[in-house]
Amino acid sequence: MRILVTAGPTREYLDDVRYLSNASSGKMGYAIVEAALTLGWEVVLISGPVDLPVPDGCEFHSVVTTSEMREASVRLFSECDGVIATAAVCDYKPKARIPGKISKTGEPVILEMIETDDVLAELGATKEHRWVVGFALEAQNPRENALQKLRRKNCNWIVLNDPSAIGSESNSVELINPNGEIEEVWSGSKSEVATNLIDWLSKRES
Prior knowledge:
Layout: E1 2-7, E2 12-13, E3 19-20, H1 27-38, E4 42-47, E5 59-62, H2 66-77, E6 82-85, E7 92-94, E8 113-115, H3 119-125, E9 131-137, H4 142-152, E10 157-161, E11 170-176, E12 182-189, H5 190-205
Parallel strand pairs: 1-4, 1-6, 4-5, 6-9, 9-10
Antiparallel strand pairs: 2-3, 7-8, 10-11, 11-12
C-alpha cells in the first residue's frame, strides 16, 4: 500500500512579510504518517509549514501556499493507492500580492479576497480506482456539514472533528461514509486515533 498524506496549514501572502494562515499544527497528519509507516506502508507526505520532525522513512515534500500543495498533490496522487487529506489549507487568498511591505497609513486597509484551489475536490474528481479520506473540522451543524463536504468533494469517507483538535495532543473523531452513517468513533491521543484509522483502512483496502 502506498498512500499520500497532506498535513499542516498553508500560507497566502498579503505582501512579502505578512500572510494569512491558520493554527493547524500538523500533528494529526504526521501521526497518520507514523502509523502507516509502522504498518509497513509506503507514505508520501506533503506538508505545509509546521514545527515537527519529518517521520523517518516517508517521502517528504515541503510546500507553503495552497497552489503549491495542489500542484504536489495532483502530481503525486497518481502514484498512490489512496490519500488521507488532513491539511488545513487556506480557503481564500488576497486577489493581489503587494510587493515589499505594506506601510501603516493610519487608514483602514481593505483586502479583496478570492478563493484558493480546492485541493481535496480535485483529488476526489480524479481518483478513479483510488480512495480518498478527507478531514472536516466543523463547529456548527458538524455532521451535516461534514457529509456535504464528503459528497461535494467525492470522498470515500470523511473524518469529522471539531476546533478543539487544533494544536491539541488528543482528538475525538467520527468516521462517516457517503450514506451519512458513522462507521467508527475514536478518541484519545492523535497517535491512537491515527493508528485506529490506519488499522481500519488496512482491513478495508489492503
